[in-house]
Amino acid sequence: MSKRKRPDSTAPAHGLTEHEKTIHDLIKSKQDMGIFSQDIKRETKLLPNIVTKSLKSLLAKNMIKEVQNVQHKARKHYMASDFEPSAEITGGSWYHEGALDKTFIDLVRKTCLSYISSLKIATVEMIYDAIKRSKLFHVECSQEQIAEILRTLELDNQIVEFRSTGCGEFAAIPIRRVCYKIAKKPGPGKEPKVSPMASIPCGICPRISYCSPDGIINPITCEYYNKFLDF
Predict the structure, then answer these.
(1) Which residue among 84, 97, 155, 204 is least crowded, i.e. fewest CB within 10 A of its CB?
(2) Residues of the domain holding 152
(3) pLDDT of 3
(4) Are residues 107 and 217 in the same domain?
(5) Are 81 and 134 in a shared domain?
(6) Do 100 and 72 belong together in one domain?
(7) Where are the residues of the annotated region Disordered (predicted)?
(8) Which of 89, 124, 152 delimits the end of a domain?
(9) What is the CA 5 to chain-centroid distance, rounded?
(10) How many domains, the chain?
């Protein structure tokens, strides 16, 4: 569901040129996803100078705003003023001032590992409830975000996913419910098994489940992945 702010009663409802109204209606139709300036030109088929002039006018009238898209920082992204950008645009709590907050992500990862270790076996719901009750973080993490973190830990071979049998050590967990245990450490003289994901940014990225070749989050535009390839 789109997060929509209360409309600003002071915002002018009239006095727009035909071009400004066309552009404003298009931007508003995109709701909390917004739209890139290039796409505005493509969809309205207006001349570039008219689009630029209209955008400046709409910004001055506080009818639209420019927002930062964490995956396309160099491109201008616009949204109607009565909407707040979605987590896909801002990156949600995993991002701070437009950059991936690795310190916060690392803290959440360590906290999840700590709870799994103490509980021996834990579901996403159990870990989420424990974190919510603890009030450890300055921002609230959703259950979906905790699931994303667990996915990165699994990719790094730090935890292992199981399906509960409802018996023995799984007695407290409903049958077939997904749960996690700390991965076993290698025996003496054996090298630890390192996941191929551990050496690339994807291994710690909590948004990896949203990453796809044609998605807003994708390997082609990801600045962290591109830096890794350049290195």
Answers:
(1) 97
(2) 93-230
(3) 54
(4) yes
(5) no
(6) no
(7) 1-20
(8) 89
(9) 21
(10) 2
pLDDT (tens digit per residue) in 160-189: 999 988 888 888 888 889 999 999 875 555
Q: How far apart are CA 204 and CA 225, in angstroms?
A: 12
- Structure tokens of 231? 């290195």
Quick one: three-class SS letters along the chain?
A: CCCECCCCCCCCCCCCCHHHHHHHHHHHHCHHHCEEHHHHHHHHCCCHHHHHHHHHHHHHCCCEEEECCCCCCCCCEEEECCECCCHHHHCHHHEECCEECHHHHHHHHHHHHHHHHHHCCECHHHHHHHHHHHCCCCCCCCHHHHHHHHHHHHHCCCEEEEECCCCHHHCCCCCCCEEEEECCCCCCCCCCCCCHHHHCHHHCCCCHHHCCCCCCCCCCCCHHHHHHHHC
Prediction pTM value: 0.52
Model confidence at 146: pLDDT above 60: yes
Read off the pLDDT band of 9 (50, 70, 90).
very low
The reply to whether 71 falls in a domain is yes
